[in-house]
Amino acid sequence: MTNLTIVSVDDEYPALQLIKQYCNQIEDVDLLKGFQNPEEALEYLQENKVDLVILDINMPYMNGIELLEKMPYKPLCIFLTLETQYAVKAFELDVVHYLVKPVDFETFKKAVDKAKNFLQFKKSVENKKQEDFIMFKSNYIMNKVLLEDIKWIQGFGEYIILITSLKKYMILERMSNFEEKFQNLGFIRIHKSYIVLSSHISSYDTGNVYLKDGDKLPLGRTYKNFLKAHLN
Q1: What are the residue boundaries of the Response regulatory domain, all occurrences included (predicted)?
Q2: DSSP H or E stretch at residue 109
Q3: Can you give the pLDDT at residue 76?
């Protein structure tokens, strides 16, 4: 089993040291970074995909909930905080666990183990044979499109344009919603305005993604490392 990759964010240095100490005692986890500044954490997380973030909530400049909501992808999350009034919000964000400081090692380990088990289950589901088409509504009509026919998806505010080898479909849906709904089929965000199927990617460089059919799309700077990690 691949190690669970973790980033911790807490404006209090002793809390970060305690998380590091706890993580060192748990098998199959890899604490990559610890940040006191949430803005620096967000910048790192935009460039690097991790499995789990352990977040304090009440921090200067940006609280943990805001940080989680601004991320370009949705990792597993454990809130580790002194605050108790955000539990309902945490539930709405589908966090793995909500821990109130101080937290002993066994309680912390149970929360991390829960994240490990959830990730393992998710990967096992994704590895099963997937359908070779998607269904969506466009112009009040349900449409079925084969994955092999989809060229890319482009975002326009509240709408997305799904471009196939035969026609274009305008869909009333945000990019983030489409990405979350169909990411298990191999769709990947390469730019704030573009999503493609990873199986259709031929190559990429510093500013572009090249598809197997010869099309070229822009590669956003904040998505480059995410793309690299996904394809590797």
Answers
A1: 5-116
A2: helix 105-126
A3: 92
Residues 4, 1: Cα–Cα separation, whole Å: 9
Domain with CATH 3.40.50.2300 in the chain: 4-126
- For the question of whether the overall pTM of this predicted structure is more than 0.70, the answer is no
pLDDT in tens, 68-112: 989 888 899 999 999 888 888 877 777 889 999 999 999 999 999
Write out the two tokens for 62. Answer: 């940006």
Helix (H) or strand (E) holding 200: none
Q: 71: burial class by Cβ within 10 Å (0-12, 13-18, 19+)?
A: middle
CATH superfamily of 133-231: LytTr DNA-binding domain (2.40.50.1020)
Tell me the CATH number for domain 4-126.
3.40.50.2300
On the question of pLDDT at 129 being above 50, the answer is no
**Are 189 and 152 contacting, i.e. CB atoms less than 8 angstroms apart?**
no
Contact 144, 135 (CB under 8 A): yes
Question: Which residues of the chain are in CATH 2.40.50.1020 domains?
Answer: 133-231
C-alpha to C-alpha distance for 43 and 61, rounded to whole angstroms: 14
